[in-house]
Specification:
- The structure is a single chain.
- With 850 residues, this protein is an alpha+beta fold.
- It has 24 helices and 23 strands.
- The radius of gyration is 35 Å and the shape is elongated.
- The two termini are 30 Å apart.
Length: 850
């Protein structure tokens, strides 16, 4: 049968257009998913400098052990050393006034890189320009320094009084300053031992004589390649790794971007689920309309002798051909729409284009198979097996009741869909919650219907209650047709419940990203502040910076005992707690830091008073460390600080937001507990770019021992990436909104023939057409309000569960939507129904009833 001839039938066109829109939305959703995943992975690789990092504090034995393995696995790689040493200025002229002389020596953090650095991300270096360049302008490089040259952080130029071309000695080797390091793809962020960065060529390390047996340094091997090859390297390298060797994936690093990626991945799954289920609702309604309009035709064909098997094959062939065309249309249209959106939005989104074909097509194809097997087949079989007489005596709504076997088959299909989506998306809880949004509305709609019937009876029996006749007629029409109103309300309620859930989660995600990296987020850290420098430096910064965090004291110490037992025997080696392998940053504070929250115990409200005889102090422990060490409130701890031992007791356990870019600590003592020890101080602040140079110059000149960490380039890159991903999430939300709009359109198309017949009958009995239109507007307003209330209940419940269990957010109750959504949706549905059904309402009664 020609598909072109079938498309001339209005009923088949509705199903075919619904199929096309469903395939388009699913294909576009998956394309955007692929683009967003690729964007995040690119961002993580850029910030980490590669895909997989092997880190060790010792030289590989033999030296090419790891590089040989990486080469065998077909990976790209880059080697580097990182160590701290002293840098000395070689060619500075003598100064007459010793008090005004700049320091000749400076502690620096050296990173020696090879010719392949960086594998990913951007290295921005300003070098000496040509004679035509302006004084401050120069060439930009994106690779490491050549042998004999070094690149220095901007702060070193001011602190040491040098310029490009100056000579700097590191160890036994003298280097020429070849560039000013503006940003690097993998900046180290260490509170202790932090020093300005120097970038050196990997081949120059032996000539410096800095790395000797027993020296403290880190060897790093950064690798890039396909996931399969990286996994193969990990599997081969893990058995050969020692205690000091560690493998770290770029997407597993803690921080603002990793947390954003985890939540965005869950949101992508949520948006995909919502799109799938909403399009299934629209397709189900369209198919019901198609079946309803085919009843008389099937009855006549069966009366003329055609068997149900022949008709079933004929219908399946028609629908199957339409489905293939819809899949092709969806693929081509989604490709063109994606490219067009990316070209239109440009740098606002800056997402990579998805490939023409890929694994992502499996999900739309799987949904299509589900539609064929579990939606179309049962309904068509029920239609074709029904007796012709029953089809000719169609009920008011014109629908054919499915058989018990058909309903059971559909339920089995939805159960399989839940399992398949849970396996595909990797989140069973997310799938179950969203499927509940899809299936529960039918029960809740029935409950609302019963409540409406009870309210109508109470109002009709109370003569003191007066309400307009139009409303009374609309409510009577609703209560007269439960088999029609309940599924319709459930469909609209589940659709807008899913839409509102996606909208609320998207809003919370963007709000949290903005909160984590606001415009006044600290972009500089100051470390190694001496106690006598604290007051003057704080006064200097407050006069220039936009924000200044409190100055926290820092003391180095090790955790030695837990409840009277040595910590290394108490904690299993299998846990690999990194905090036990190094000194901890200890501090004290009277007030709970902004990015901390007490989850167990209580924060101290009284000043420190040593307990009688024992002198035990209270500490607050970070929650993840407490979990790793199996600590609880009241447990005893002993710290080694220098040559002293300090007993303490766990007074509280805190959750810490490590993505806040503010000073955070594993261990916080109560004030006064560490008075016997001399601390250094740390703080962070925000200063505008146009004022930072002068402030940093003053700090470098007047406080030469203070270390400065500049986070501005890192924060800017993260903010740009999150903004672009946020724009991508807006596109996903737009797709879900379009899918919800499709459901409303199909509902109105399904209503049109019923409303035309009902209106014609009422007009034939003498009712006023204007009164009928008012009654129907009120009727749809009631249905919209009920659907909005149902959507609000479902979305509020689902968003609370998802925020707590999936997205790790603080739960939020959206009181403002409880009145706004039902009233707004009721008004929108009423206006759209009035507009969409106006042609059906204006038909001549004789033409409709004949």
């Amino acid at each position: 049968m020609s598909i072109r001839r079938e498309l001339r039938q209005p009923a088949f066109r509705i199903v075919f257009y619904s199929l096309c829109v469903m395939c388009l939305m699913l294909m576009l959703m998956m394309r955007l998913n692929v683009a967003l995943v690729e964007k995040f992975e690119q961002g993580q690789r850029a910030l980490a400098g590669g895909d997989l990092l092997l880190d060790s504090n010792r030289q590989p034995e033999p030296a090419d052990r790891w590089t040989t393995l990486a080469r065998e696995e077909g990976l790209s790689f880059s080697e580097s050393y990182e160590f701290s040493t002293m840098a000395a200025v070689e060619d500075r002229p003598a100064v007459q006034d010793p008090e005004s002389a700049l320091p000749e020596f400076q502690l620096v953090s050296v990173k020696a890189v090879d010719q392949h650095y960086p594998l990913a991300g951007d290295l921005d270096v300003e070098t000496r320009g040509s004679a035509s360049d302006s004084e401050n302008a120069g060439e930009r490089r994106s690779s490491g320094p050549p042998p004999g040259e070094i690149y220095l952080a901007r702060t070193l130029f001011e602190r040491l009084g040098i310029e490009l071309g100056s000579k700097i000695r590191i160890g036994r080797q003298v280097f020429e300053v070849g560039g000013r390091l503006l940003s690097e793809p993998d900046p180290s962020f260490r509170i202790v031992g932090a020093a300005p960065r120097v970038l050196m060529n990997f081949a120059d390390v032996p000539s410096t004589g800095v790395i000797l047996p027993g020296s403290r340094y880190e060897y790093e091997l950064n690798m890039s390649g396909t996931t399969e090859r990286l996994n193969a390297f990990e599997a081969a390298a893990t058995p050969m790794m020692g205690a000091s060797d560690e493998l770290e994936w770029a997407n597993s690093r803690e921080g603002t971007l990793s947390r954003a990626w985890e939540r965005s991945s869950a949101f992508l799954a949520l948006a995909a689920l919502a799109t799938i289920l909403i399009t299934l609702v629209s397709l189900q309604l369209a198919l019901e309309l198609y079946v309803m309009q085919q009843q008389r035709i099937v009855a006549l064909q069966r009366t003329l002798g055609m068997t149900s098997d022949v008709l079933l094959r004929d219908y399946l062939a028609k629908l199957g051909m339409g489905l293939l065309l819809a899949l092709t249309f969806g693929w081509a249209a989604s490709l063109g729409l994606e490219r067009g959106l990316f070209a239109l939005l440009g740098e606002q989104v800056d997402l990579p284009a998805s490939p023409l074909f890929g694994w992502w097509m499996l999900l739309p194809a799987g949904v299509v198979v589900f539609v064929c097997l579990f939606q179309w087949y049962p309904q068509l079989r029920s239609l074709l097996q029904a007796p012709p007489a029953s089809l000719l005596r169609q009920s008011e709504d014109g629908s054919v009741a499915s058989s018990k076997a058909g309903r059971l088959w559909t339920l089995v299909g939805y159960a399989l869909l839940v399992v398949a989506l849970a396996l595909y998306l990797g989140s069973t809880l997310l799938v179950v919650v969203v499927m509940a949004l899809f299936l529960v509305p039918l029960l809740l709609a029935a409950l609302l219907f019963l409540l409406a019937r009870l309210a109508a009876r109470m109002l009709s029996g109370d003569r003191h209650v007066i309400y307009p006749g139009t409303w009374r007629s609309a409510l009577a029409n609703i209560l007269r047709r439960p088999w029609w109103v309940i599924p319709q309300t459930a469909a609209l309620g589940s659709t807008f419940g899913l839409l509102l859930t996606v909208f609320l989660i998207r809003t919370e995600l963007i709000t949290q990203w903005t909160t984590q990296l606001p415009d006044d987020a600290p972009n500089h850290f100051l470390i190694n502040i001496a106690p006598f420098e604290r007051a003057d430096l704080e006064s200097l910064i407050q006069g220039t910076a936009k924000t200044l965090q409190p100055m926290y004291p820092l003391i180095r110490g090790r955790l030695a005992e837990i409840n009277g037992e040595d910590v290394k025997t108490t904690v299993s080696k299998e846990k690999d707690v990194n905090a036990l392998n190094r000194e901890l940053n200890l501090t004290w504070a009277a007030d709970l830091p902004e990015s901390n929250k007490v989850v167990e115990g209580e924060w101290w409200s009284e000043p420190y008073e040593p307990q009688a005889e024992e002198g035990i102090v209270r500490v607050s422990v970070e929650s993840l460390l407490a979990q790793q060490l199996d600590l609880a409130v009241g447990d005893g701890l002993v710290f080694d600080i220098g040559s002293e031992r300090l007993p303490a007791v766990v007074g509280s356990i805190r959750s810490v937001d490590w993505t806040s870019l503010k000073p955070n600590f594993y261990i916080i003592f109560e004030p006064g507990a560490l008075e016997a020890f001399t601390p250094s101080y740390i703080t962070s602040f925000r200063v505008d770019d146009d004022r930072s140079a002068a402030l940093l110059s003053t700090i470098n000149r007047n406080y030469p021992t203070v270390s400065i960490l500049e986070l501005g380039p890192l924060i800017s890159r993260i903010q740009v990436l999150l903004k672009q991903v946020g724009q991508g999430l807006e596109l996903l939300l737009a797709i879900v909104i379009a899918a919800a709009a499709l459901v409303v359109v199909v509902v109105m198309l399904r209503e049109a023939p019923v409303r035309a017949h009902e209106t014609a009958l009422m007009q034939a009995l003498g009712l006023d057409p204007a009164s009928l239109r008012s009654t129907q507007r009120c009727e749809f307003f009631f249905i919209g309000c009920a659907s909005g209330l149902l959507a609000m209940v479902l979305s509020q419940t689902a968003s609370l569960v998802l925020q707590i269990k999936v997205f790790d957010m603080d739960p939020t109750v959206y009181w403002q939507y409880w009145l706004l959504l039902p009233a707004g949706l009721g008004l929108v549905i009423a206006l759209y129904a009035s507009f969409n059904l106006r042609s059906a309402m204006r038909q001549q009664p004789a033409a409709v009833l004949k």
